[in-house]
Design a protein that fits this description.
By secondary structure, this protein is mainly β. The chain is 3% helix and 42% strand.
């Protein structure tokens, strides 16, 4: 695997010693995991005589990092109800597996909801890996089943509810590091320093719940 050339803090050493050998240490940064580096060591004595040695070393694979993925915030754009508040329920799934649900509640257009803390998933991620899709789905029980219906969870059917869904997409640790701080989305406390991204529903033909969601990533 190719990597960037590391920076050596002090590449040159000068010493005087009666001993025929000596040892020293080099400080290098920007070493990448699972990468072979080739080293050229050259020495010159006071008479200008030179010698050199060539070697190499391989770094171990970069360690995995724990990532907690959660739905931090949901903004209802259309509550899916023609009269009054919508009877809306939410669900969350990761890689097609149900993570959690939010029981039905009456919500108006423009309402903001902060899902319960238990609606999250924990994954171990290496630098060269990506997360699976996190799906956020919402349904309003009074709308016609003839509208838009997509089942992000195996076995989920319309059953008198129009489901609408938004997907987080797959992201890497580098993608997460490039996301804005969650403080930009109204989070406070420890959550403010996490990374967040906004997603929106896929939309349909009308009458279903439409919403935006903020996905929160905590890396440790």
């Amino acid at each position: 695997q190719s990597g960037t050339v590391p920076t050596i803090a002090d590449p040159a050493f000068h010493y005087e010693t009666p001993e025929p050998w000596t040892t020293w240490k080099l400080n290098m940064n920007a070493l990448e995991g699972d990468t072979t580096y080739h080293v050229l060591l050259r020495a010159t004595d006071t008479n200008g005589k030179r010698d050199y040695q060539v070697g190499s070393f391989t770094t171990p694979p970069a360690p995995e990092q724990e990532v907690v993925i959660s739905v931090g915030r949901i903004d209802v754009k259309d509550n899916g109800d023609l009269i009054g508040k919508g009877e809306i329920r939410f669900g969350f799934a990761y890689d097609g597996v149900l993570v959690g649900t939010r029981s039905e509640q009456k919500l108006s257009e423009g309402a903001t909801m902060w899902p319960d803390a238990y609606n999250f998933v924990v994954v171990d991620l290496a630098p060269d890996e990506a997360t699976s899709n996190l799906a956020v789905w919402a349904g309003e029980r009074d709308v016609s089943v003839l509208g838009f219906c997509e089942a992000p969870v195996s076995g989920l059917e319309c059953h008198g509810i129009n489901w609408n869904v938004a997907y987080s997409g797959s992201v890497t640790l580098a993608d997460i590091a490039d996301m804005p701080l969650c403080a930009n989305y109204g989070f406070t406390g420890d959550a403010a320093d996490d990374r967040c991204t906004a997603i929106t529903d896929l939309g349909g033909i009308g009458d279903e719940v439409t919403f935006d969601a903020v996905i929160r990533y905590h890396v440790s």
